[in-house]
Specification:
- It is a single chain.
- The chain is α/β, with parallel strands linked by helices and 233 residues long.
- Helix content is 49%, strand content 13%.
- It has two domains: 8-106 and 221-232, Rossmann fold; 108-217, Rossmann fold.
- The protein is built from eleven helices and eight strands.
- Strands 2-1-3-4 form a four-stranded parallel sheet, with helices on both faces.
- α1 packs across α11 and α3 runs antiparallel to α4 (60-76).
- It is globular.
- The two termini are 15 Å apart.
């Protein structure tokens, strides 16, 4: 009897990040499953403004409530497990995990495990200002004995501005790409041997071909882990 491929539930936050994750699942799966074939996928997203309001108020309970609401709706649609292609709102993950109707893949754990497997030792961290100042990645990095480096305070703020004012709207400016590249070069000079693209929109403008460091693409790594879970259980 053919093993059932599991149904992936995507808890979306920003349109660009969620859409890229969905597209990656659908385009990467055929190489494993056969022409045009991919796991069943359902997605639910609350308005990004609701998440931003909670982030501005440091309201982790509010974020957890939004994520849990999406989780319940996806469970009712038949999803077998959940992913969230948004690093920032994983700050609230511990507040919802036990109440969730379904198991999750944690984006930071997926990324850091991949870094460890590939022999990287010191990871540069890029993402929204909320994410980079949080413990989402440091907690996971320290668990596996690796090190990390954040950009300067100015770099954290400007990277966050570019993400929220440009990338989430699908705006890609050459000067913003150059700014990311400069920050990555600084992280390399600080001893990093890889950089975490800890915002799921960053891969829209930065990848291994234009980065001074090998990239850990959180969006792609999460999508690939979801495909693997869907197929293998």
């Amino acid at each position: 009897m053919t093993k059932k491929i599991k149904h992936i539930g995507i808890v979306g936050c920003s349109a660009e990040g969620a859409a890229l994750c969905y597209k990656t699942i659908c385009t990467e799966s055929p190489s494993l499953l056969g022409e045009h074939r991919h796991p069943e996928v359902s997605m639910h997203t609350h308005s990004l403004s609701e998440y931003v309001s909670c982030l501005n108020d440091n309201d982790m309970e509010g974020i957890a409530g939004l994520m849990l609401s999406s989780a319940n709706k996806l469970a009712s649609q038949g999803a077998d497990f959940l992913i969230c292609p948004d690093n920032t709102i994983h700050q609230a993950f511990q507040r919802l995990e036990k109440a969730s109707p379904l198991p999750w893949l944690h984006i930071a754990r997926v990324v850091v495990e991949n870094a460890k497997q590939n022999g990287f030792r010191k990871l540069g961290l890029l993402g929204t200002e909320w994410l980079v100042k949080s413990s989402v990645y440091p907690d996971e990095i320290e668990k596996v004995g690796l090190c990390y480096l954040r950009p300067s305070a100015e770099g954290i703020t400007e990277i966050g501005r570019i993400i929220m004012d440009e990338l989430v709207y699908g705006i890609f400016k050459p000067q913003s790409i150059a700014y990311f590249q400069d920050i990555i070069q600084q992280l390399k000079s600080g001893g990093c041997d890889a950089v975490i693209l800890g915002c799921t929109e960053i891969p829209l403008i930065i990848n291994d071909s234009n980065s001074a460091l090998p990239t850990l693409d959180s969006n792609r790594l999460l999508a690939e882990a979801a495909i693997d879970r869907a197929i293998k259980g």
